[in-house]
Design brief:
This protein has 17 helices and 16 strands. With 461 residues, the protein is of the alpha+beta class.
Length: 461
């Protein structure tokens, strides 16, 4: 029995990477605690000197404090299995369009190679810094997968991103204690089918380059900036594709063409919730349109307002005789408000969908349906015009059985405004994806009306 037991032990030791069964008991990890405490109590040169770096370093301090400053990736003078797993995950960060060099992979591989020359043993004096650097690499990669890195506002001033929340110190502690390092990172990346499809496209692009690798990488980053939980059902507007989809899980329940803001009046990128549908809406003309477009026209054509059913209201709320106003006198027109009455000529059409936001942007009908036949539809002043608003109205009102198709049609043509709160709010996400994965896995590369690809690429270089 002794010989058989010895043989089994030798085989087991040979298969266990980095673990030497025949060695003496491991060095007590507590010997590294004072040095690790000194490191995390300072700010080493390899910590990023920006807001994200400060947040990650705080997470690292909390992480080591929770484990009494004991190493996380070393067992005695050897690397734990978690170290090898993490190093492999960092090397495969390129599967997400990220650069492995960002996580010091070469430095960690050199340290591992040096240890291999010493029967897998690491220099005890170097373990504290190595361990803390490995932890920082994990946190940095985790932050990138969560979409915390990059600066969308530097690309596009009205690109609002709400950070995907995560307690990284706690997340890492759980990953290390449960030996789920790779899984813990995979959980942080977007799970959306578009993201997965773009990852597959990136792999194909590496094997058979067609010149789209940068575009795929940038669109992967944009998905990481999106909320990773979009909702069980939600509206997704893809601005450069001029397309809107209502999604239920991973299935499109409704899709239609849209018109978005032109380059001078671009549609902002953000997420919010649809709360209200407004039938037969009034249109309160924005100040910018009054100043830049209507006033110059009214100097020679004051009858334009009457033909468009636009009323002018003074500062005290009284109606103004448009023929009595000197439209070229800046003082005379100060404080005037323009409102277009409901009807077939109304710029908002017969219905609008409100998701309250700081930009006063919404989705709406339009009286100019012919524009949907244009291949490039960046034509509005920022709001999103819908090709089939009736279909969307019926969809969002489906949990109100009293709102039949006939009643919806009547409300749209009533000639007076009626707002109806939605029972269940619907998340609305306005994104900018110039690489879109089709159902067969192929990728469509779209228009780039706001030139964001070149701006994002310049920041990545």
């Amino acid at each position: 029995m002794g010989t058989r037991f010895l043989h089994t032990t030798v085989v087991t030791c040979a298969l266990a990477a980095g673990v030497a069964c025949h060695r003496a008991p491991q060095v007590d990890n507590s010997r590294h605690a004072p040095a690790i405490q000194r490191i995390v109590g300072s700010t080493p040169a390899w910590v990023d000197r920006d807001r994200l770096g400060s947040a990650l370093w705080k997470a690292e301090r909390d992480f080591y404090a929770s484990r009494r400053n004991l190493p996380a990736w070393m067992e005695g003078d050897e690397a734990s299995s978690g170290f090898a797993t993490l190093l492999d995950a960092l090397k495969h960060s390129e599967d997400h369009g990220l650069d492995p060099a960002r996580y010091n992979t070469d430095g960690f591989q050199q340290a591992a190679a040096a240890a291999a020359q010493n029967k897998g043993r690491y220099e005890l004096a170097k373990i504290p810094e190595l361990d803390t650097r490995v932890t920082y690499a994990y946190l940095r990669y985790a932050a990138d997968l969560l979409g915390w890195s990059g600066n969308p506002k530097a690309i596009y001033a009205t690109w609002l991103v709400t950070a995907n929340k995560m307690d990284l110190a706690d997340h890492l502690a759980t990953a290390v204690s449960s030996n789920r390092v790779r899984e813990s990172l995979d959980e942080l990346a977007p799970g959306h089918p578009q993201y997965k499809g773009l990852q597959a496209a990136l792999q194909r692009e590496r094997m058979n380059p067609t010149g789209h690798v940068d575009g795929i990488r940038m669109n992967l980053e944009r998905w990481r900036w999106m909320p990773h939980e979009l909702g069980d059902r939600y509206v997704l507007v893809n601005v450069p594709a001029y397309q809107m989809q209502v999604m239920e899980g991973n299935r499109p329940a409704l899709a239609m063409r849209v018109i978005v803001g032109d380059p001078k009046h671009p549609t902002p990128l953000f997420s919010d919730e649809m709360t209200t549908i407004v039938f037969s809406p009034n249109w309160n003309v924005p100040e910018s349109i009054i100043r830049n477009e209507m006033l110059p026209r009214l100097v020679n054509d004051p009858g334009y307002l009457e033909r468009q059913d636009i009323q002018v209201v003074g500062t005290s709320g009284e109606a103004v005789d448009v023929h009595a106003v000197d439209w070229g006198d800046e003082e005379a027109v100060t404080g005037l408000h323009f409102r277009q009455e409901p009807g077939p000529r109304n710029a908002l059409g017969l219905v609008k969908f409100v998701f309250p936001n700081q930009f006063d942007v919404y989705m709406h009908d339009t009286p100019t349906d012919s524009l949907f036949n244009k291949p490039r539809r960046a034509l509005s002043h920022g709001c999103i015009r819908l090709e089939n608003p009736v279909a969307l109205a019926q969809y969002v009102m489906r949990d109100k059985p009293e709102w039949t198709a006939e009643r919806i049609n009547a409300a749209m043509n009533a000639g007076h405004e009626q707002g109806v709160p939605l029972k269940d709010h619907i998340p609305v996400h306005i994104g900018y994806f110039t690489a879109w994965v089709n159902s067969d896995g192929s990728v469509t590369y779209t228009d780039d009306p706001y030139g964001l690809d070149s701006k994002q690429k310049a920041l990545r270089l």
